[in-house]
Amino acid sequence: MDHSTLPASRTWNIDLQFWLMWVIASTAAILISVGILIGLIFIANAISTNVNEDRLAGAIMLPITATILGICQWLVLRSRISKSGWWILATIVGTTLAVGVVQIISRIPRLEWNWDSQLGFQTMFVFIGFMMALAQLPILWEHFKGSVLWILFSIIGWLVMG
User: CA–CA separation, 145 vs 44, rounded Å?
Assistant: First the structure.
C-alpha cells in the first residue's frame, strides 16, 4: 500500500548541535539588535539633542529585535525545515501583536498596571514570548513531536532576556 501522500510523522529530534546553534543565533540576534539600537540613538542624538532616548528605544527596539531574531533563527531552522521562510514573518507578527496588546492594556485607566515595575516588565516579556511562540507554532507543528513545548521554551527565553 502506498502511503506517500500521508504527512511524514513528527519525531522527537534532540540534536545538541542544532540547539547550540539555535542559542548562538538567538544570542547573536539580541546583541546585534542592541548594537543597532545604540547606533541609532547615537545618530539621533547627533542630529538633535532633544531626543528622548527611552521613547526612541521603546518604539524601535522590539521591531528591530523581532526582525533580526527571526532572520537569525531562520538561518538555523532552514537546515531542518525546508519551507520555514514564514518563520521571520511569524516572529515579527507575534511580537507586534504582543506589544500592541501591552499598549492597549497600559491605556486602560482603571487597570493601573505598571509596566515599569520589575513584575510588570517581566510579565511583558513573558507575554511577548507566549505570543511569538503562538505565531511560530504552526511552522513547527508538522515537523516536531511535542512542538507545543515551544511555547514554554519561548516564554523562558524571553523571561531570561527580560
Answer: 47
> pLDDT tens, 77-101?
998 888 888 999 999 999 989 888 8
- Decide: helix, strand or coil at residue 160: helix
The single-letter DSSP state of residue 144 is B
The domain limits of the chain are: 16-161
In single-letter form, the type of residue at position 75 comes to L
Greatest CA separation found in the chain? 73
The helix/strand/coil state of 2 is: coil
pLDDT tens digit string along 120-156? Answer: 778 888 998 999 999 999 988 877 777 888 899 899 9
Amino acid at 110: R
What is the grid cell recorded at 101? 496588546
> pTM of the predicted model, to two decimals?
0.79
Q: Around Cβ 118, how many Cβ atoms within 10 Å? A: 9
Q: In angstroms, what CA-CA distances link 49 with 38, 43, 45, 55, 57?
A: 15, 10, 5, 14, 15
Q: Name every residue whose Cβ is closer than 8 Å to that of residue 135 and which is 6 or more positions away in sequence.
A: 90, 91, 93, 94, 97
